[in-house]
Write a structure and sequence with these properties.
Number of domains: 2
Strand order of the largest sheet: 1-4-3-2-5-6
Largest sheet: 6 strands, mixed
Number of helices: 8
Radius of gyration: 19 Å
Shape: globular
Number of strands: 6
CATH superfamily of the largest domain: Glutaredoxin
CATH architecture of the largest domain: 3-Layer(aba) Sandwich
Structural class: alpha/beta
């Protein structure tokens, strides 16, 4: 009987180690962001001018509302765009930020990433960005005008995919929990133009 208990304990230990290694080394719920915004900027060096302009404004809030946002979308014509709607009061956004840190750092030389800070106070949003950075800027949307125009609902997080012509092709409701999940949707909705 004692041998069986030792064998059973050994099998359980091996299972725990295998599960732990799978989640650390790229299992379906893994994410791998750079260690800092400075590291992300190094990864993004050499991006085309319209994308480099985004990287220079990374982790900032931009005024101007809907007109400024639409002007930026027009300026990014020729590049696929991924827009993430977030808020400091949104607990799932905290889960999702590392995924956007990771994928925007890895794919930001071919794809434009933008944020929309929804229905938030500047102090709260800036506090959030000091805790969890983004390698792209976010447009302030305190009255949800940008969100309404994009049919992005009342809640966060929501992600909107735009093709190279600036046309919205998909609105994704809910949290991205892994690099793989966001990468798969970029490939699905933006096709070969979004692949690295």
């Amino acid at each position: 009987m004692r041998r069986w208990l030792i064998l059973l304990g050994s099998v359980a230990l091996i299972a725990v180690v295998v599960i732990g290694l799978t989640s650390v080394s790229g299992g379906d719920n893994s994410t791998d962001p750079p260690d800092s915004l400075a590291d992300a900027r190094k990864e993004l060096a050499g991006a085309p001018a319209p994308l480099a302009a985004l990287h220079e404004q990374s982790n900032t809030l931009i005024d101007g509302g809907l007109p400024a946002f639409e002007e930026r979308i027009a300026a990014l014509k020729g590049h696929p765009i991924v827009v993430n709607k977030w808020a400091s009061w949104c607990a799932p956004c905290r889960v999702e930020f590392p995924v956007f840190e990771s994928i925007a750092s890895k794919r930001g030389k071919e794809i434009a990433f933008l944020g929309i800070n929804s229905k938030d106070e500047d102090d709260a949003a800036n506090g959030f960005l000091s805790e969890q950075w983004l390698p792209f800027p976010s447009y302030k949307d305190p009255d949800d005008k940008i969100g309404v125009k994009l049919k992005a609902g009342k809640y966060a997080p929501i992600t909107i995919f735009f093709d190279k012509n600036g046309k919205s092709v998909k609105v994704h409701y809910g949290t991205y929990k892994s690099d793989k999940q966001l990468n798969d949707d970029i490939d699905r909705y933006l096709g070969a133009a979004g692949t690295s």
